[in-house]
Amino acid sequence: QKEVEQDPGPLSVPEGAIVSLNCTYSNSAFQYxxxxxxxxxxxxxxxxxxYSSGNKEDGRFTAQVDKSSKYISLFIRxxxxxxxxxxxxxxxxxxxxxxxxxxxxxxQVFP
Amino acid sequence: DSGxxxxxxxxxxxTGQRVTLRCSPRSGDLSVYWYQQSLDQxxxxxxxxxxxxxxxxxxxxxxxSAQQFPDLHSELNLSSLELGDSALYFCASSANGGETxxxxxGPGTRLTVT
Lengths: 111, 114
Description:
The complex is a heterodimer of chains A (111) and B (114). In chain A, 0% of the residues lie in helices and 58% in strands. In chain A, the strands form two sheets. In chain A, strands 2, 4, 5, 9, 10 and 11 form a six-stranded mixed sheet that branches. Chain A is mainly β and 111 residues long. Chain B has 114 residues and is mostly beta strands. The N and C termini of chain B lie far apart (31 Å).
């Protein structure tokens, strides 16, 4: 079993929809949770970064962490075609820089 | 643009050969990380260097090695290449390594082994 599980998709939604992307994990030592966006043939780009449990909002993006359920989410409001990309969750334990990535969810937003 | 640069963008080589991938971190970043991304394995952490010293090791094969130079750029050396080594190789950097978890990725080097 992988430490981080992520549905590969693809997830196809109309423009303006609310998108929910999720990851589950098994290692209770994970304390830092990140979401990266990766466009085709590009490097991953850091979108959101949260520590421990709770919510964090940045514009149209909201990240949620539920450590009791070992479940993290990324919500995208008013989705745009430019949001079409692969979204990778990543996490790490305290006092380590080693990031463990999910396999990524491919999102397509159609006009 | 993350500020992390990688060269070359593409590399095509034959099995058994050796190649070197180069990475320059963001200005001021001391940590460099190398990742391999393949279709079936996703993004896998290979190795981290912090200010010239190896800091953490992941799923790096013995045929692969890396180093970080005094000017903080890093090189990943891949030898005795096999078909299965074909992948995207990313370099990432972060400010302090251990105090921040925000890693910034370069555009990657696409390696094709024929």
